[in-house]
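Below is how a single chain appears once it has passed through the pipeline. First comes the sequence as given, then the structure the pipeline wrote out for it. We keep one example in the README because the format questions we get most often are answered faster by looking than by reading.
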Amino acid sequence: MGMVASVLVACRPKVNQESFEKINIGMTEMEVRKTLGPPTETSGIAIGGFSGASSTWKSKDGAIAIQFLNGKVQAKEFFKPEKERP
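Resulting structure:
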């Protein structure tokens, strides 16, 4: 039972301020996934040699939204949980 719990915890996104700060502009999508795990939501588009994607990682600790252009981080934002917002 303990092994199963460990596996489930390891698959959950690591969404917190500390993880957010590890994400840098220019990082690849693979590097982001190594840091945060798989995204909760993702969408994308490809037009004329350019590809864009928007991915979001959500947990009870907040949400991280990242925009990718051609597979690299272009913008990022951290959202605190509703209960912590002023």
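The longest strand covers residues 50-59.

See the next section for the split statistics.
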